[in-house]
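P.,

For your records, the input lines for the assembly:
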Amino acid sequence: MRESAERYRSGVMPYAQMGYWDSDYEPKDTDVIAVFRITPQEGVDPVEAAAAVAGESSTATWTVVWTDRLTACERYRAKAYRVDAVPGSAGQYFAYIAYELDLFEEGSIANLTASIIGNVFGFKPLKALRLEDMRIPVAYLKTFQGPPTGIVVERERLDKFGRPLLGATTKPKLGLSGKNYGRVVYEALKGGLDFVKDDENINSQPFMHWRDRFLYCMEAVNKASAATGEVKGHYLNVTAATMEDMYERADFAKELGSCIVMIDLVIGYTAIQSMAKWARRNDMILHLHRAGHSTYTRQKTHGVSFRVIAKWMRMAGVDHLHAGTIVGKLEGDPNVIQGIYSVCRDAVTAKNLQQGLFFDQDWAGLRKLMPVASGGIHAGQMHQLIGYLGEDVVLQFGGGTIGHPMGIQAGATANRVALEAMILARNEGRDLWAEGPQILADAAKWCAPLDAALKTWKDVSFDYASTDTADFVPTATTA
Amino acid sequence: MRITQGTFSFLPDLTDAQILAQLRYALAQGWAISIETTDDPHPRNCYWDMWGNPLFDLRDAAGVMQEVNACRRAHPNGYVRVNAFDSTRGFETTRLSFIVSRPSDEPGFALTRTEDAGRRIRYTIASYAAGAPEGRRYRSRDGDVG
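Structure tokens returned:
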């Protein structure tokens, strides 16, 4: 009793002493676990900093409040239970924090994130804070719908198996009229792509209103389908100012027979979940463009890692997620990107520190989502793309299709031939890393568009150091 | 035109040696091979006719190839494709599907447009060949029906 009186005496007390640090705590199977990278201010004890993050992301405020005693407060307090120095980065620590399941509303990314990243990122005792990874318990996952379609059903609907899907984003991304825009879509689909895509910022502007775009794009999709005998699609971007607008656009896309619609990450988690439910109800594939993510995912010391965003998006329920190319123009360390691909595609993701995966994650039957590799990739990198990314991925060659010297159809054909030749060779047991360029060169002998593509882009690569890299490197062990 | 369904339709028609290599790959993954044929290759026709049940217990590529050839002989002017099915959790679906023979003449598809209100258009894709009854849809260049 005296102990309790002490604990709840009015005033300020270190978070660690308030019950937000427990080094003996064993996380329960039903706990949500988060690992943060914390960079405390000079002189701030890392354990106290970790306890502060646990406190501010669960029940605490800056001072003691007696009203805690009206609740089962010890259960509701998040518990920091482990703090490790980050290898090779002085002043940074990984803090592991466990959260009781009852802290979260079922099926709500908004509620989950309002706690986990709600208040703590501006907290003064920390110089910087980054959410590195989360373990979502099966009990919580089962309250989420997940991807409306998923990789397996998407492939069955499209009748496309055994190879990555091929896409391209219409360029220029802004300025084309509806009729000219549809021309690009038709040429690319007829030439061999499976999908063409609206870019993130094409919504309904003075040069092209959305209905015009949708009508011309569906003419292009159907015409290309008849010309090839294949199922084709165009991601119609339904991103708009309000949910009412988005539903109106999505309903129109459905009415026109589109198999897929698209949204941007900037619409927010709740809007994404609403569209996921709409997509499940209407048999639509839902493509998500991760517009805006680099503002908080790219820097290693502060923000939210993209692998966490990928987990949230699999729970929220999207079918396609841009997840990095490794070889293209946008940020992408090979280990980190492969970890993100695992989050999208595994039935059970195994802990892999080198890839930034801090936990085993059982996905509890949640459908798998198709990662999308887009941004500065071309046919000459096909062996690397398949080697790094595997076959359940959409490879999007925008400039690499539309910028082809012989035209858009030729650009699409070059990519499709390069892809099929590489998959054929891989299945025959050939070593793509060693023989990839030769496999492409052999196919280029009978495919003039591929030959031209290889010549045009042969020297293009984007070799810059990544900012978001893995902290753990394998240590050599004696055999 | 050339129908480009399947994993390898943008490549020149696969030789028997190339088909065998793909069969070996699929069998090595533990997948079951099935053979299907059709004379109605509409992009939404997902149920081609099965050439018997999937060959769950036939693990020998040469043996599978004999079945492929038997199907091709029986349907010299139809489409024949090879599928590989993966029964492991999280997949339970086709993992590879490629055309191994096709009619010598592929007339392709008509696109019919029906105009509707508000500039909407209803699209229908119909195979030119499928206008004839089953079994009489494709002819080889020398006039045989397949």
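Two observations worth noting. Residues 5 and 102 of chain B are 11 Å apart (CA to CA). The domain at 16-101 of chain B is CATH 3.30.190.10 (Ribulose 1,5 Bisphosphate Carboxylase/Oxygenase).

Regards
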